[in-house]
Design goal:
By secondary structure, this protein is an alpha/beta fold. It has 7 helices and 10 strands.
């Protein structure tokens, strides 16, 4: 089985299309899994959802999808409320309900040779798994997972880490890179005897095009969205990409 995992598109339909074009050039996949955070922060949230539907992607819910789907603004700041409200207007009630009802995990096999896909980690949709996470955190997130291969996004920082016989794969972001590299990222996994072959993919997209789409979209807090797109780096990252405690 060959599975492409795309996560954290964040309303960037152009970058999603470039990743799908790249996947097609590499022979496609049996299944495309979209691992959440489809809409918030980008200019084309509805087009992202339509594109995923067109290709028959299997989708799971990320933290921002939950925020949009539930529409409970009590615990969010004013900027989040503006952003969520704008997305809900753009995608309409049917897509909003669809986001709310998505599953939190997708599994391919239930034994150790299987694959589990989630958004941030298997027990939470909003706790990051940094590449230097300690044993206690990893035990809490992954210790009870039967599958030895777990793929996730949420942290827009691609890496692969082997921990206690499990392979942890951060597929990062197909629409809003934040690791200092402006290229979109997704992963192709191919099931082999004894495990999964991992093929990370970096894909260029036209940042100026997306910036112009943002400017024309009416999205709230435009300057912050443009800075996030063009900055493509977490503040927590050092100059060489190392995590700063």
């Amino acid at each position: 089985m060959r599975i492409a995992i795309i996560s954290d598109i964040h309303g960037n339909a152009h970058a999603l299309s470039r990743c799908l074009d790249d996947l097609a050039l590499r022979g496609g996949a049996d299944v495309v899994v979209a691992a959440g955070d489809f809409c918030l922060d980008g200019p084309k949230p509805k087009r992202v959802l339509e594109r995923l539907a067109e290709i028959g992607a299997r989708c799971l819910r990320g933290n921002t999808d939950r925020m949009i789907g539930e529409g409970d603004f009590a615990h969010y700041d004013e900027e989040d409320v503006r952003a969520i409200g704008w997305v809900r207007e753009q995608i309409g009630e049917s897509w909003t309900r669809w986001l709310r009802d998505l599953p939190q995990h997708i599994a391919f096999g239930s034994d150790e040779d299987g694959l589990l896909v989630c958004h941030a980690n298997p027990i939470s949709d909003d706790e990051h798994v940094w590449p230097d996470a300690d044993d206690a955190l990893l035990e809490r997130f992954f210790g009870d997972v039967p599958q030895r291969t777990i793929a996730f996004g949420h942290l827009h920082l691609p890496y692969v880490r082997v921990w206690r016989g499990r392979t942890l794969i951060d597929v990062a972001s197909a629409g809003l890179p934040k690791d200092g590299d402006p290229l979109a990222h997704y992963v192709i996994l191919t099931q082999r005897p004894g495990g999964w072959e991992i093929q990370p993919r970096r894909v260029a997209f036209d940042i100026d095009k997306v910036a112009n789409q943002l400017k024309k979209s009416g999205i709230p807090d435009l300057d912050e969205r443009l800075a996030m797109l063009r900055g493509h780096r977490y503040a927590k990252l050092g100059a060489a990409g190392a995590v700063i405690p």
